[in-house]
Amino acid sequence: MKITTTAALLIVVLCLFFLSACKKNKPAEEIHIEQPPSNNIIGTWNHIEYFAGYSLGGDFKWHPVTSVEAGISVFNADSSFFTNSVPSSNFPASFSIKNGKLYIKFKTYTDDLLLEKLTQDTLITSRRVDEGKIKYKYLRVN
């Protein structure tokens, strides 16, 4: 009888051990991406800085754009888009904002950028590159 009680106790202890060691399924956290209204982006934006991250040796600083990199981007209420930083052969172009991304559809390709920040005066977008991501900062002109 003593062996049976000991065996039963051992089985109970082992069961409790294995049950407590099992991975608990926690409910998935809901991810909420706040969608900026697309009408906040309507207007003319001046590209002023870029953040290279790991690119350029990984200095992790904002850099002013050169006159060659500088450009004006125009987002119109009818979803049309224009920038002077790409060749004119890529136009007409349009834009849309979906799931925290800014999609710019040019004549020959679509550019998708992550919206990092969109306020009344500041627009920051980013794009994935081999070294992480590069950010672009714009200030509203009008």
UniProtKB/TrEMBL annotation:
Domain of life: Bacteria
Protein name: Lipocalin-like domain-containing protein
UniProt organism field: Mucilaginibacter agri
